[in-house]
Amino acid sequence: QVQLVESGGGLVQAGGSLRLSCAVSGRTFSSYVMGWFRQAPGKEREFVAVISQSGGRTYYADSVKGRFTISRDNAKNTVYLQMSRLKPEDTAVYYCAASDYLVIHTTTAKYRYWGQGTQVTVSS
């Protein structure tokens, strides 16, 4: 069974930075496409960023492009989301997810495994 555990969330002022981490159990981490999603109160879960199995390909939502960076360390079974120039509208619960599809996807339905989420709150 694959388990994902996010960490690194918290309260930060607008313009600040946070780095989220997602530790993944199991020996097949390097075979998964990894994504970050977020869900604000009263809204649907939305795509944030995705990274390919080797880390060679990444893709971002327009709303975070140029501010967020996704990366992974396959030796540590961990995926990261570096968030900079945070805005109040970035406030949400952030989830990491693992997909066993061969190509990157941005839809939640393509991700089989999910973490419990970590709260990010950006104050104005």
Q: How would you describe this protein?
A:
The chain is 0% helix and 48% strand. The protein is mainly β. Strands 2, 4, 5, 6, 9, 10 and 11 form a seven-stranded mixed beta sheet that branches. It has strands spanning 4-7, 10-13, 18-24, 33-39, 46-51, 58-60, 68-73, 78-83, 92-99, 113-114, 118-123. β7 (68-73) and β8 (78-83) form a beta hairpin. It is globular. The chain has no helices and eleven strands.
* Order of secondary-structure elements: EEEEEEEEEEE
Assign a percent range to the helix content: under 10%
Shape: globular
Radius of gyration: 13 Å
Which stretches of 5+ consecutive residues score pLDDT under 50?
none
Which helices and strands appear, and what pairs or packs with what?
Elements: E1 4-7, E2 10-13, E3 18-24, E4 33-39, E5 46-51, E6 58-60, E7 68-73, E8 78-83, E9 92-99, E10 113-114, E11 118-123
Parallel strand pairs: 2-11
Antiparallel strand pairs: 1-3, 3-8, 4-5, 4-9, 5-6, 7-8, 9-10, 9-11
Summarize the model shown.
The protein is mostly beta strands.
Brief descriptors of the model:
124 residues, mainly beta, 4-stranded antiparallel beta sheet, 11 strands
